[in-house]
Amino acid sequence: MAIRPITVERFSLVSSKPFAEVVAAFEAVIGHPDMQEFSKNVTAAGSWQELEQVVQAAVGPSGLMEFIRFNLGQILQKEQGADAPQILRVVVGNPLIMKKMAEHVPDTASYAPVTILIDERADGVHLSYDRMASYLASYDNLAALQTARALDAKVEALLSAAAN
Fold this sequence. Notes:
Elements: E1 10-15, H1 19-27, H2 35-44, H3 48-58, E2 65-71, H4 72-80, E3 87-93, H5 95-102, E4 114-121, E5 124-130, H6 132-136, H7 142-163
Helix pairs in contact: 1-7, 5-7
């Protein structure tokens, strides 16, 4: 049995824009494939090039796609009413980026795709992301770490654009 301590860095920023505007800006640049169709297309791909085409067709201008979302605010609203804070967790990524990390550090599959949290608080709308490079730092693999840092920069730019 092995236990590995992982220190995680959280990127977080606050927007003064309304929650719906932040979410709309975020959604505008990520892909929203039908996941059943996407899965069928991945399975049907007969070569690496065909798989790349399937993924490229699914990602948005950010190079990322939505895998699933959890509307946690909806749960709060059931008890607290319409004034409860909105909380949205969106799992996003790009299978081609994940592959580049996982071929060097298989544990990457525990961390990718990544979670984006968008939530309302008293001081504004928070956009948060746990940096992939922080998850992979302890594995001492430069190739995976470089890819993780590029992913972090991509996600952080996306969140900054959505916030502003």
